[in-house]
Amino acid sequence: MRRLACVAVLALAAACGAPEGDETASSAAPSSETPERLPGDPIDNRSYAGEWAAQVDDCSDARKVWTIESHRMGVRKQRFCVFNQVRQTEETTDAEVWRADARCLAGGRESDDVLFFRVKPSRLEMRVRISDSDPEELVRCPMQT
């Protein structure tokens, strides 16, 4: 009887997903990813989240804007990614660095990519690298009212 109970508990745990501390798990609990965030803070307070473009003048053209949310992004209406896992890898006086493992769709093809967001302390400038591509320098778009 005890063995059956253990099997049932293990099956239930497997159905619920991996434990929060498991690095391979897709984490829906933001508190385990960024412990400095207070409970109840919106997840989109992450420094990389927002609308970005190569230059401020491009912000009015939707074809040139990068829309980045906490767990997904759209790049100039050409690439769409869903982040499987996001974690902050570095924070210095020069920048915050975030790494996102993502499933992306571009040009009709799916790919598994690694994205790095290097956000300057002002949170108005960022460098983004998608897998092995050249990094792109971006500026935060002003909020539209």
Report on this model:
- Helices cover 10% and strands 39% of the residues.
- It has 145 residues and is mainly beta.
- It has an eight-stranded antiparallel β-barrel with strand order 1-2-3-4-5-6-7-8.
- Strand 6 and strand 7 (125-130) form a beta hairpin.
- The protein is globular and about 35 Å long.
- Mean pLDDT is 76; it is low at 1-43.
Largest sheet: 8 strands, antiparallel, barrel
Q: State the end-to-end CA separation.
A: 63 Å
Strand content: 35-45%
- Helix count, per DSSP? 1
**Oligomeric assembly:** single chain
How are the strands ordered across the major sheet? 1-2-3-4-5-6-7-8
Number of DSSP strands? Answer: 8
Arithmetic mean of pLDDT: 76
How much helical structure, as a percent, in the residues?
10-25%
Q: Please state the overall shape, judged from the principal axes of the Cα atoms.
A: globular
Give a quick precis of the structure.
With 145 residues, the protein is mainly beta.
SSE map:
Layout: H1 2-16, E1 50-53, E2 66-68, E3 72-75, E4 79-91, E5 96-106, E6 109-119, E7 125-130, E8 136-140
Antiparallel strand pairs: 1-2, 1-8, 2-3, 3-4, 4-5, 5-6, 6-7, 7-8
